[in-house]
Amino acid sequence: MVTEYGIKFTKVCENLLRRGPLTLQLIVRYTELTPQQVKNSLLILIQHNCVQAFSYEQDGGLEDGPKSNTQYMALFNNILHRMRFSKFLEIMSREFDDKCKELLEGLLQHGRLTLKQMVERAKDLAERAKSRKKEGICENLVQESLVKLFTARYVERCPASEPVLAARNKEDTPAKKRGPKSARTAEESQTLEQRVLAAAAPMEAQRFSAITNNESAVGRETSMDDSPGMRVGAKRKYDASELHIEPAAEEEVILWRANFEEFIRCLRHKACIENVRERLDDGAATVLRAMLEATRSLENKVKTEKSVPLSLNNIFEEVMKSEEGRGMTLDLVRASLVQLGCSPSARGTDESYKIDLKKIIELAQNDEVESIVLKRYGRDAYRMFRLLSKNGRLVETDKIANTTFVEKKDAPKILYKLWKDEYLHMEKLVVAGARQSQFLLWKVNKPCLWKHVLDEMFHAALNLSQRVAYEREKEKEFLNLPVDKQVMSQEERLNRLKSVRIVLESSLLKLDDALMLFHDFEESSLLKLDDAIMLSHDL
């Protein structure tokens, strides 16, 4: 059951997602909440990286008076990432120790934390674990873990609380742009979001900058954190940073948060590696993993199309670092590169290779959609769809039936079913003559189909998310029932409810793997889909 506070957050979030950036006054008008309720909701949404505030520079400059045009923008992707926290923690478990995992878990739970709050949280965890003889985590250990995480770019400094964009000009005005209104709105909103995030992001040198290993670093933090209401777990927003970096610098409050971008990059790499393993072999997957791990820090964006070039000798050295790669020879590495579709290019005196990651993602998308067709429509439909997907052009009905060995009387029915469900594009060809005849031509329109599949995935994820929430409520209700009204034993009933919930949560995580293929790993032209918006409410 959604709490009273959850309903308020949902109202604010829904209006920002559906209407785009809004001022505080407009949010109050659309949600019919009080100004204070809206402010509290926005503070918590900002604290958890779900909303970003920004403003436009006034025509006369910033010195003309205080800014009164602050707007708030919902960050849809960050909201969606909330159902991936377990995957982020799994990555942390594989690469770092438990202390780093605990630190990240705190950042995911509270959204943004200062170093002092991380230390307080670590001490609280150590005190609660004394019965298990677990040693306390001191400030130095927390700092060491934090340094490890932002060195690996899994943690970053928080963006500016309210970046100021240049005053809107004619280029930003949508009136002169042609095309459907909905398409223009999506394009402009995406461009605006990119501008806002770019303006808010710290400089690269500061975003992952080191902290001083000084015992009094926490003690020098501003007294803003000393009040009882500002401890870990409090839902609030800070406008500045918290850690003293240079002795001569003015003391400021530095807030840290999880860097979702780096985690999505890791998940994208993992998806590429597993797809190569399934389509090719372990050797090709080992070579690809070695190349991606060696160049991960050099990628300038998550959705990069090609990997950073590496020489054959460098690739071989990286392959040798892994246990599964130590048995590979230089010739086997070269053969795996050929399997991966890499052609050598001259780079000084050495040959260099780079992987077409975009092509691997596209092949994974094809496999995913073909799998859906197979499960939903059967083997004959799968063969016909696969043929059309590979051809990429219009094909006549009889030719499809002949090529795929499907009965000619069944082929039109199957094709029509796929077309009706928006999996195929159909065109009619009329041939004039003594006897006018009509032919049906079919093809797979991938851009349109990918949007449709993504919409279906969001709808399925919404249903699963709501069912998981329902099962959790059933567990709570059962615990509150009097013993005389319980039909079966409490332990038996709880085990049954937990089993159902675990299956549902596992299905949701698996569905999210497919969803990321179409939305997070490739450039997506997602509009404000209703199911996507509703899913964000449940997260």
Automatic annotation (TrEMBL):
The keyword Cell membrane does not apply. It is found in: Nucleus. Residues 369-430 form the DNA-directed RNA polymerase III subunit RPC3 winged-helix domain. GO terms for cellular component: RNA polymerase III complex. Pfam families: HTH_9, RNA_pol_Rpc82, WHD_POLR3C. GO terms for molecular function: single-stranded DNA binding. Residues 145-361 form the RNA polymerase III Rpc82 C -terminal domain. Belongs to the eukaryotic RPC3/POLR3C RNA polymerase subunit family. Component of the RNA polymerase III (Pol III) complex consisting of 17 subunits. This is DNA-directed RNA polymerase III subunit RPC3. It comes from Carya illinoinensis (Pecan).
